[in-house]
Amino acid sequence: MSTRKIYQSTRSALLTASPAQAVMEGIAPDGGLYTLPSFADTGFDYQAALSLDTLDMGAMIMTALLPDFTLDEMTALVRAAYRNKFETADLTPTVTVGEDAVLELFRGPTSAFKDVALSLLPHLMRASVKKCGCDDEILILTATSGDTGKAALEGFCDVPGTRIIVFYPENGVSAVQKAQMVTQTGKNVCVCAIRGNFDDAQTGVKNIFLQVQEQNLLAGQGIRLSSANSINIGRLAPQVVYYFTAYKEMVAAGRIRMGETLDYAVPTGNFGDILAGYIAKQLGLPVGTLVCASNANNVLTDFLQTGCYDRRRPFLLTISPSMDILVSSNLERLLYLLTGDADIVKGLMQDLQEKGHYQVSDALVKKLHSDFWAGFCDDDGTRDTIGQIWREHHYLCDTHTAVAWNVAQQYKAARPAHRPVVVLSTASPYKFPEAVLRSLGISQEGNGFAAIAQLEKITGVPVPQNLRGLDQRPVLHRDVIDQAEMLKYVLKKAEEKQWNK
Ligand SMILES: *Cc1c(COP(=O)(O)O)cnc(C)c1O
Fold it and tell me: 68 C-alpha vs ligand 1 centroid, how far in Å?
């Protein structure tokens, strides 16, 4: 077991942490994100990983990223996390759709791709806390654009030694997403709406971490804050695994040869999912281009094309709400990995906060272009794409997946090589039934929940079990507050000994 402090903040090479400590803390004390200086130096044998089944492959990859844990320890955590939780044994099936492939990441307990990481994170978190010799209770704070919240609630629900508070934008999530969260059971869970958008909620959470730490606000209470957002490396690491499983399946299906590069199109919000693909590439997996797909909130498209990140633009509410983000947290890790210079990253993040924009060097833009391609697709394009995939391939996809599919086709048109692209599918179409029905040209009868039944009847695609009967469950969480009240809310909740009976 190594407890070497091999992780460091993206904003200071002097702020170091062991892998377990990085998972336990979630975010570095200076507001930076914990990262390895490079993921390319781990000596990882990607071909050996590809020869394993999904869970063993996962344990091998996770151990390489978090070497505080032995392979045996990690294997036990992985098995406990995924046992009987997903619809299929391989967790994340890759299916052929036309010339391309769809990597289905939504077969978990809440029908969102975030289940892949959030099934494992609570187990990893408990084990990390133990390794650090800490016996504090962990209080998870999470901001959600819709899917993280439910997946985190489900993952942490009744896990001993943990409590979780989820903040969501009051009008920024779908009816189904909201129902999933406000009906969550469990003694250690709390859900609260914020009057504002996702960026408000996320910034609010980040500020709480900083203020609690600077002013030592939870001193003596035996409580330690942590994060289940993809700013936590423990949240990111499990997502690296499915880039490998998809590659393996594409080789097995004869669609690529072993060693050939494979392109992936990723519907992107906070840049966590696509960064996991970049980490897979650093571990040696023959990843070609990572296609970054955005909706009309196309701040990342502009950045990856020009090197100018500019959040000074209207925040648009779209039919792919989990990607409605103007400040993509994990981009900071990429900036660090590409520059290797925490001072540069610190300066850029300061510009972003103070001026609302920053510009990176031409040399860095060149590096970005060697790994990434970017495009976006607005709501009309998203609906057209859902209708088209259904008509042409009889495949039903959700709005986020449709954005990625559309941008993948833009990418292929720009680079006409005849190779399949793996499109990451991040949610079940039944999480956004109204938008999907409309995309198929069908007018909706009744409310969002009736739309689920209607969509199933028309397409014959079965509704996932966890989304059935959602509107019948009792609402257990009704709090709504302003961003300015978040800190007070958390401190009050932290003091309460019992939340729910
Ligand atoms: C969270 C989410 C995304 C964006 O993933 P990031 O890691 O934040 O880039 C895309 N689609 C869905 C359905 C999501 O829930």
Answer: 28
